[in-house]
Amino acid sequence: MPHKRRPGGRPLVLVIEEEASIRALLHRILEAEGCAVMAAGNSTEAISILGEYPDAIDLVIADIAEPGVRGPAGLVHRLTPTTRLLLLSVGTTAPADSEEATESLVLLHRPFRSNALRDRIRTLIGDFDSPAERSDE
After folding, report:
1. Domain assignments of the chain as residue spans, ordered by start
2. Is residue 101 helix, strand or coil?
3. Which of 23, 41, 72, 85 has the fewest CB atoms in 10 Å of its CB?
């Protein structure tokens, strides 16, 4: 299924991270890359946001260990078919990338560099113009 793109081309990313400092860091990285960002401190908040904006969110970034992200009643089952998911993991909390990756879901192990995050985002939602790229025009 082709990925949707809102007018203006800025992807909307929902970050689900319980640690405020990590949530803020991801927010800064994503905005620097040209994304619009919404944030939730847990999966309950995220489910509420997804309910309010069911078709607007292009990508969800969540910690794989966050309760409520996966499982039958979890966040994954509330995503639209065009919403992509990037799961963050630490150490051995998740299966290997090759077992987990699909067209709409990618796993990224922590710690990671901002360019690795950008590459995973582009794998999931395609190329978009970051502010640095637009300044060359």
Report:
1. 12-126
2. coil
3. 72
